[in-house]
Amino acid sequence: MSRDDNxxxxxxxxxxxxxxxxNPELLHRATQLKALPESxxxxxxxxxxxxxxx
Length: 54
Prior knowledge:
With 54 residues, the protein is mainly α. It contains three helices and no strands. It has one domain (10-53). The protein has helices spanning 10-18, 24-30, 38-53. Helix 2 packs antiparallel against helix 3 (38-53). The relative contact order is 0.19. The mean pLDDT is 84.
């Protein structure tokens, strides 16, 4: 088991997926995870793009 340099926890990822899509700082940190599946990376990138449009 290893720890990510961005201090992202599994709980943080679940928060982003379930209720905190409007947390740009956490979204950006999550997209830096090397272990993040591509589909999740795409989802978080889309959330970032939606915030940039607002």
